[in-house]
Amino acid sequence: MKISHQPPARLFTSDNAAGVHPDVMAAVVRANESHALAYGLDKYTMQAKDAFSKLFDADVRTEFVFGGTGANILALACVLKPAEAVVCTAWSHIAVDETGAPERILGAKLIDLPSLDGKLRPEDLHSVAHLRGHVHHAQPAVVSITQSTELGTVYSPDEVRAICETAHELEMLVHMDGARLSNAAAVYGATPEALRSFTIDAGVDILSFGGMKAGIMFGEAVVFLKPKLGDRAEYIRKQITQLNSKMRFVSAQYVELFRDGLFFQLGAQANAMALALYERTKHHKSLGLVAPPQVNSLYPTISQPARTALQDWSFFWDWDVAAQQVRWMTAWDTTLEDIEAFGLGVDEVLNSN
Ligand SMILES: Cc1ncc(COP(=O)(O)O)c(C=O)c1O
To answer: What are the tens digits of pLDDT across the range 107-137?
Structure first.
């Protein structure tokens, strides 16, 4: 079937499908002045590193890389020793969406545990503790959790604290994949305090800090909340091909993102639009949208031929094909007009079924 309405101006495919916030773009253009020292020795990189320390209200160590996979690999590479393993969920980006980069580049085993909601819990760590001290097993050394998770759920500060306490008792470190930290922070008030509550204050050791889903063009950061852990980061970053010679263009974006709280506003906007999409479409019981989204994604079920009709009209990804589940994701620039336009298409397809 063909949908008669105009598709929305923006896609519900991914927050990565969104463009660059105009203020960030302007900051990149401003940074394009004359010459600057390469490889991070420029003033923008100094300012951006300071901005991260201010954000966390601590003397953290921040290093920039090209993308999110690079951030995860650098973070883990800095702390893993040979024969060590990373504990994560079977949904985690490092286990599912990095083309085996951790296995190839880190040479480490990923112990990817099943999880219904994309979260790990202290008991999961206890379940692998028996591997420690046995010569035949890779040694669990780092726990990697994702905030917000790959399933659109969010760890509370207490949940992160409990993971960190257990990990540290078991002599493991905690890495957080924060590709969507701005969305998670919005759940707790969209402030630096909110961000700190489930990161540095909760005991996280190393953070992959995402900006690309929060309005920037390219470049993510690894924040060593325990700065000593990043002692070898600069060398390892170069070795794993993540040292950007024109680093000023990444850094200038973060300076802008943090200047007036844009980072937090954009995460909150994406979340608000996911809630609006939920409100607009939940009356279709077949979608199975039983609870409001916590952050910026919905996971409805849509059977054929409705699914293909909608995807041909305004593309979004399948999620769990066997369950006929798809993902609708909002971004920092999603508008209420997009929601209404998309809602009309959903109505047309589902009402005709
Ligand atoms: C949970 C998570 N981690 C990390 C990333 C970063 O991946 P990339 O290497 O594509 O920037 C993503 C991007 O979708 C993600 O969803």
So the answer is: 999 999 999 999 999 999 999 999 999 999 9
Q: At what angle do helices 43-56 and 247-259 cross, to 10 degrees?
A: 40
What is the mean predicted confidence (pLDDT) over 87-92?
Answer: 98
Question: Cis link prior to 182 (omega < 30° from 0)?
Answer: no
Q: CA nearest 100: which of 91, 113, 109, 87?
A: 109
E strands in the chain: 61-65, 84-89, 109-113, 139-146, 173-178, 206-209, 220-224, 297-298, 317-320, 325-329
All domains of the chain in start order, with CATH: 22-259 (3.40.640.10), 263-351 (3.90.1150.10)
Residues facing 241 on adjacent strands: none
Distance in angstroms (rounded) separating the CA atoms of residues 316 and 250: 28
Q: Rounded to the nearest 5°, which phi and psi values hold at 111?
A: -95, 95
Residue 13 CB–ligand 1 contact under 6 Å:
no
Tokens of 29: 């253009």
Which residue minimizes the CA distance to atom 8 of ligand 1? 68
175-220 residue pLDDT tens: 999 999 999 999 999 999 999 999 999 999 999 999 999 999 999 9
pLDDT in the model for residue 353 = 60
- Which of 13, 72, 91, 93 most suits a substitution to test ligand 1, by most atoms within 8 Å of the C-beta? 93
The values of phi and psi at residue 64, to 5°, are -95, 145
Query: Please, are residues 15 and 270 in contact by the beta-carbon 8 Å criterion?
Result: yes
